[in-house]
Amino acid sequence: MTPDLDAVDAWWRAANYLSAGQIYLTGNPLFSRPLEPRDIKARQLGHWGTTPGLTFLQAHAMRAIVARGIDMLFVAGPGHGGPAMLAGSWLDGSYSERHPEVTRDARGMAELFRQFSFPGGVPSHAAAPTPGSIHEGGELGYSLAHATGAAFDNPELTVLCVVGDGEAETGALATSWHSHRFLRPERDGMVLPVLHLNGYRIAAPTILGRMPKHEIAALFAGFGWNPIFVEGDDPAKMHSGMAAAMDTCLDAHARIRRTGTGRPPMIVLRSPKGWTGPREVDGDPVEGTFRAHQVPLDVPREDGPQLRQLEDWLRGYRPDELFPDGRPSDLVLSLVPEGDRRLGATPHADGGRLTRPLDLPPAEAAALDISAPGAVTDSATKVLGHWLADVIRRNPRTFRLFGPDETASNRLDAVFDASPRYAPGRVEETDTDLAPDGRVMEVLSEHLCEGWLEGYLLTGRHGLFNSYEAFIPIVASMATQHVKWMREAKETGWRAPIPSLNWLLSSHVWRQDHNGFTHQDPGFLDHLAAKGAEMVRLYLPPDANTLLAVAEQVLASTDRANCIVAGKQPEPQWLSLDAARAHLGSGFGIWDWAADDPDPQVVIAAAGDVPTLEALAAVDLLRREAPDLRLRFVNVVDLMALQPPDLNPDGAPDAAFDAAFGTDIPVIFAFHGYPGLVHELAYRRAAHARLHVHGYGEKGTTTTPFEMVAMNGLDRFTLALDAADRAGHPAPRLRAVCADLRDRQHAHSRETGTDLPEIRDWSWPAAPLPTGPGGDDDDA
């Protein structure tokens, strides 16, 4: 039975009352006596302006859920819609189920009010402690991308996504209007966007808020939507109009699901900012202006006209009718759906409840057969692509690969054997690896790829985002928001773990010599490391088999952000799969086949595929040209393992770190990124004072692969000479060899545009190298 509009209006008034109460009150929630200064918060925080529109839409969403028996997820895009989301979940009972101390009665209402934007309480925006929410409103622009990600592979779900007109001015949101073209009705859910035009940002009018209706209609028709307008300020007429619009949209969804065709509907809701709040304060208009954005009425903690105006405003909702005994009235509760269909209780907003582990194929089928270190040359990401293809085959409804048109460029094109790219329109005869049922999601917007993936993960599915390393910082702020969400979600105690957020960064800084300086930036590692080892892992696999071992681990993990940096160019391969798994399990380790003197004079360490190549070439040089120099070689795959256990519970014990790196000998560390990150992670280790890190020094251009490492001091000659110098070894023959090769390499690159063959084609020696004292270095 469809709830009548009297119930819709009663619920809306109740939610508005609760929302305003959260902003202003610490006690006396139902006026058992006239308001007094002691009832008023010392700091009045929150955002009223967007709240009545959000509560209005929640009410009409519930009417549709009850009438049609559908599952719906509510995504609140406007930045600080927390009062509305909290009020809605308290009214439907889901808040009290998660937070038993906030009961659904007068005592609990007082606690709901007190805790809002209050020390030890909850934030002013929808966040992880808010039942029914997957969307953190502190940063604008991602609501529609999140909503679309939630709809992927959720054919029975309707996602109602509210887009504020301020949010609609962001680049990420503007791109997101294309997302509907990536939804396939028979496989995916439906997204119903509601563009909420209340006219203002914080202090100025919005672009869309000042656009005439015919231009808005033309704009969204051009995006492929069928816009339906609901406009006005009279509650009775607006309820009637919104109910009709919602029914029209959901009927259209049913036809699209049935036929697979049709223009998707959207709603444009135009209502006053701060609707139902104070119309005027101290002679200035408030409702319908920018003044309603945050706290429309500044109420001092003293008796006076503002206190009386606040009381009149709140009593205008008729709380005695809405909460006759301190609890929501029967009329209010008649609008609330049952069980998991409540907006605050839907499992789609607590995606860990729906998560099923991936069926991961054995990596052995894709692994390279390594007879000896360096004996095989291959592309690490190409090898991974074959394994990912099998992941897609085994998980046809719970795994997707996302990327900004770089899947083939990053050598992952073997995935197209399992699934093509998704075609957002017609497929031409000249297209390749493109089809309407593809599971490889490509669009040239990192924001959109990230938002889709986050929405997909937050609702319980799995994925991987592949990108060029230099351009992933475009989503750095989104990554921050998601990591913070996961941290807060873990602290709630009631949200189930969700699949990890995984990035694969290829076409990285050391192999962007052809594209030049703008494509050379490893800084995403620094950005993520600052979020803490509890939430973040940074992996720098040196070869294909280690990349496979890392991929196995991260795709099985939960509640983490995992960043993998791996090259796509053919390079020497070092470890068998078993050795790679053991190496990953330790985080770092001595490669005894390269150099493992029990009493080394110097340690050469590396993290990253190109740094490993150059460091091993440096070891080769040293063992040939200074064979009496005692060496140890250490490789790092899990960068966060450099942190000690008191900073990272999974960090290597001091004893293991000291056994690898020593405590009083120099360590020459070849690092993929900015050198400061290694120092930041290892600063509390005994070896830190003798740690000498070579990495990216913000020097780049269009050049050759070797010249790129050379200009940043990461090349084999610089590493070998630094090792000799730190160990106090004169090594004149080494210096002569390095000087000769450097000069010839530089001249060769300038003449031919390529690296010297003996550098470009260097390989790890197949024959045993001379070791220890008694070698043939006449100058030692």
From TrEMBL:
Statement: the UniProt record of this protein carries the keyword Lyase: yes
GO biological process per UniProt: carbohydrate metabolic process
Annotated keywords: Lyase, Thiamine pyrophosphate
GO molecular function: aldehyde-lyase activity
Xylulose 5-phosphate/Fructose 6-phosphate phosphoketolase C-terminal domain segment(s): 568-764
Cofactors: thiamine diphosphate
Comp. bias (Basic and acidic residues): 746-761
Keyword Ribosomal protein appears in the UniProt entry: no
Region: Disordered, residue numbers: 746-780
InterPro entries for this protein: THDP-binding, Transketo_C/PFOR_II, Xul5P/Fru6P_PKetolase, Xul5P/Fru6P_PKetolase_C, Xul5P/Fru6P_PKetolase_CS, Xul5P/Fru6P_PKetolase_N, Xul5P/Fru6P_PKetolase_ThDP_BS
Residue ranges annotated for the Xylulose 5-phosphate/Fructose 6-phosphate phosphoketolase N-terminal domain, each copy included: 5-353
Family: Belongs to the XFP family.
NCBIfam families, per the entry: PRK05261.1-4
Official protein name in the record: Xylulose-5-phosphate/fructose-6-phosphate phosphoketolase
Species name: Wenxinia saemankumensis
